Amino acid sequence: MKYLPTFVFFLLFISFVNAQEIPSKEIQIKTALLAAPEEMKEGAMVYGYGEKGEFVVLRKGSNELICLADDPTSSGFNASCYHKDLDVFMERGRQLKKEGKNAKEIFDIREEETKSGKLKMPKDGVTLFVLTADEADYNPKTGEVKDSYLRYVVYIPWATSESTGLPLRPSGPSMPWIMDPGTHRAHIMINPPRN
Length: 195
Fold this sequence. Notes:
The protein is of the alpha+beta class. It has helices at residues 4-21, 25-32, 87-98, 103-116, 161-164, and strands spanning 45-49, 55-59, 65-68, 77-83, 126-133, 138-139, 144-145, 149-155, 177-179, 187-190. The strands form 2 sheets. An 8-stranded mixed β-sheet has the order 2-1-3-4-5-8-10-9, covered by helices on one side. A two-stranded antiparallel ribbon has the order 6-7. Helix 3 (87-98) crosses helix 4 (103-116). The model is unreliable at 4-20 (pLDDT under 50).
């Protein structure tokens, strides 16, 4: 019983430290929007993290773009934005990850759910923008991100190399190619050269 106050203090200290690691709402919105095309930033919805680390809506949107702030529990910096028609697919992935599923399990479950009609994927191509940077190049207090890298993904469910004319790997700088062909997660990858 004499250790109870020490234990309670320790839990409060850990909670305080964890709360300090989550950037402010303004910083999260600012850095999430770095992944968005300029003309879509103003109306984009933004997801991020609350004071206790819970996944929350930081800002409601008025256009078709949804942006995700960097996850403060992951190493490096990663912000992304995607078309709103991908939100159900992305949310299902977040749910499965929270349940402890690994990447292969998440892929297999979503593949089966898409085939059965339980999980709806967009019929037309929709885009995901992903901005990354090394941990040392991101300041969560100021929202400054240096030496970032932006790549593009266009989801086209069930497409193949044959149906698109795209190769299965890039054979030159910035050349689009198809990844996960013939699956629910078929997508065109566009990786610009790094500076």
